[in-house]
Design brief:
The complex is a heterodimer of chains A (226) and B (417). Chain A has 226 residues and is of the alpha/beta class. Chain A has 7 helices and 10 strands. In chain A, helix 3 packs parallel to helix 5, helix 4 packs across helix 5 and helix 5 runs parallel beside helix 6. Chain B contains 16 helices and 10 strands. The two termini of chain B are 33 Å apart. Classes of the chains: A alpha/beta (226), B alpha+beta (417).
């Protein structure tokens, strides 16, 4: 059996303002190494909320979350930042690249922050990631000189720079046209197949979800099929 | 490595908004420039005004005051009872410092003493036709006075050293000379307190810049003055002492009082009001400088706040990819401090240049014969205070915005899109 990467144990979350509304109800599931998982469901079913809890960015929940076998409950803000830096890669609907830096530097930033490799090595690795995604020719351009699809690929490269245990995506194709969505999906597919990369993607695109290994379907804060 | 990364990001954010950054830095620069110029000019002026008094005033003055004997005779006879003594009057003490030559010799050996200048004071009348003007003749050792109290600087016409070489010579107060209408080289008549008349040759004018002094004070050599009042060479009324360290004056005054059994007065208690004046001027300059800096600080605060609103997304993604709140805080602190450092450094430079300019503006007044341009003080202390203040103000200005940036919740920003 392959390694367990992420485990959610009866996670619940409610919004309390102005009245208590439960958003997530007692969710328990786990993700193993190399899985390509998609979370689907209608708008407002809590799938994005779940993702942000799993990503450690949202700490206001009940239940417990284990990443790489370590509980995320009771960790300080600094420690969680370290976990995100080291073990989690993000791809959002919007690319969130810093226009002040070149494409290459954008990819390097989390790597330099982690400090596992020297600057030269990090640069080399960033270049490799860009090559995998086929945009290494744009490395020295500014993000605002790239097209939407290219930007999203740079964002994926940035998510991969520290060889994370899991890459999380919040509607990574939501802002892209059909063709570019296809490209991004193919990249994800290749990542799992060639590099055994674990992926967790939230999407409302059923076509996209259907082609992943496993679909977690949510409704009203509950998992209806996993 | 990590510090370098933070600085790198701070630099990128700064350069992305370089116009705003420039405006903020110019604000700091302007206030530091004003701070340096103002303090340099104010303290230059202070030093000059103090110099008028301090350079002319001995650090410790030994003299014999007219006062009642501290040890009344009856106490020497029996000290056990309480004595009621009324209407005590000063006794027969003369105003001469006892054993002055020996005291001078001993003071000259004292390691803390820069120099000693004895003085004899004599009350006289200047005779102008039928009118007598009151005056004071100070018998001085010209060389010692020049060395210790810059006497020659206050003799705008004539030569101070002539006092020593020309017999029966006098350097007359400028205002007194104008009243008496005498020129250098002419003779004047004085009447001493003993009622005798002497003829003295005017070899120069003395001008302190303080009109009341120039009306009264004149200078002769010690020997001439002693002759005027018919006293021997050991007759000295004041011993003026200049120290290496002016701050030791009060302590040494006490010491000399007990060792030499004379009265001793230190410069601090003799001229307390000048200290007060200088202090008030310094406080005003600091207040203005700091006010300017605070205004610049608010500018920086605004610009950082704006930058944070603009860069909300960048902050969110930095946090999402593993930068902690502290890292974000440090980035904005670095931005604030570098504005302070650059603005402050240029402020120091421009402050120096403006000080130089002020230093070259002509400032000629008959009251201050040695001053040709505005006085400016270039003490590095003010430059140090300036840069320290600029760093502190910018740090404080960056404190709240950077804290706000560190508290940004990436989930709210990212989900808000």
């Amino acid at each position: 059996m392959s390694k367990r990467i992420l485990e959610a144990q009866s996670i619940s979350k409610s919004f309390h303002d102005p009245v208590t509304i439960p958003i997530l109800k007692n969710l328990t599931f786990s993700i193993d190494q190399g899985e390509f998982v998609s979370v689907t469901g209608k708008s407002g079913c809590g799938k994005s909320t779940l993702l942000y809890i799993l990503s450690t960015m949202d700490t206001d929940y009940e239940g417990d979350l284990f990443i790489d076998g370590v509980s995320m409950k009771n960790k300080s803000e600094k420690e969680l930042a370290r976990v995100r830096n080291e073990k989690i890669g993000f791809v959002f609907q919007f690319h969130y690249l810093l226009n002040e830096f070149s494409v290459l530097e954008n990819v390097m930033l989390p790597g330099i922050k982690l400090g596992r490799y020297s600057r030269m090595e990090t640069e080399d690795r960033a270049m490799q990631k860009l090559k995998i995604l086929g945009i290494h020719e744009q490395a020295l351009k500014r993000p605002n000189q790239l097209s939407g699809g290219q930007k999203q690929r740079v964002a994926i490269a940035r998510a991969l720079i520290n060889d994370p245990l899991i890459v999380m995506g919040d509607e990574p194709t939501g802002n892209l046209d059909k063709k570019n969505s296809e490209v991004v999906f193919d990249i994800f597919k290749e990542l799992t197949e060639s590099f055994n990369q674990t992926l967790l993607v939230v999407t409302h695109d059923n076509e996209f979800a259907a082609r992943t290994h496993r679909i977690i379907e949510m409704e009203d804060g509950q998992i209806i099929s996993a | 490595m990590k510090g370098a990364l933070i600085i790198n990001i701070a630099k990128a954010l700064l350069l992305a908004r370089w116009r705003q950054t420039l405006v903020a830095a110019i604000g700091v620069m302007f206030s530091i420039t004003m701070f340096i110029t103002l303090l340099g000019f104010m303290t230059g002026l202070n030093d000059m005004l103090d110099g008028l008094i301090v350079n002319r005033t001995p650090h410790v003055r030994l003299f014999r005051d007219v006062k009642a004997n501290e040890q009344q005779a009856i106490r020497l006879f029996s000290n056990d009872e309480y004595h009621f003594i009324q209407s005590i009057r000063p006794g027969m003490s003369s105003q001469v410092v006892d054993n002055a030559p020996a005291i001078i010799r001993s003071l000259e050996k004292d390691k803390r003493v820069l120099g000693v200048s004895p003085k004899v004071t004599a009350q006289v009348f200047y005779n102008v036709g039928t009118i007598d003007l009151t005056g004071v003749i100070n018998g001085i050792n010209v060389e010692a006075e020049e060395k210790l109290f810059h006497f020659d600087e206050y003799v705008p016409m004539g030569r101070a050293l002539d006092l020593k070489t020309v017999p029966n010579s006098i350097i007359l107060g400028k205002a007194a000379a104008e009243k008496m209408q005498v020129e250098i080289g002419e003779n004047i008549q004085v009447t001493t307190s003993l009622g005798e008349r002497y003829t003295l040759k005017v070899v120069g004018y003395f001008q302190s810049g303080i009109q009341d002094i120039d009306k009264v004070q004149s200078y002769c050599s010690i020997a001439t003055t002693q002759k005027l009042i018919g006293k021997p060479a050991s007759y000295i009324t004041d011993i003026n002492v200049k120290l290496y360290d002016i701050l030791l004056a009060p302590a040494l005054a006490k010491e000399y009082h007990s060792v030499y059994e004379t009265d001793a007065e230190d410069i601090q208690s003799a001229n307390a009001q000048f200290e007060t004046g200088s202090d008030v001027r310094s406080i005003i300059s600091y207040a203005v400088g700091i006010t300017l800096l605070i205004v610049a600080g608010f500018g920086i605060y605004n610009i950082l706040n704006m930058m944070i609103y603009e860069k909300m997304d960048s902050i969110a993604i930095l946090k999402a990819t593993g930068f902690s709140g502290t890292d974000v805080k440090n980035i904005f602190r670095t931005i604030a401090l570098s504005i302070g450092l650059f603005g402050g450094s240029f402020g120091l430079l421009f402050g120096f240049l403006v000080s130089k300019f002020v230093d070259n503006i002509p400032f000629i007044t008959p009251a201050l014969p040695t001053i040709k341009t505005f006085p400016v003080n270039y003490n590095p202390k003010y430059y140090f205070i300036g840069i320290t203040f600029s760093l502190i103000t910018t740090y404080l200005a960056g404190l709240f915005p950077s804290r706000k940036a560190s508290k940004i919740d990436p989930v709210i920003i990212i989900r808000g899109k």
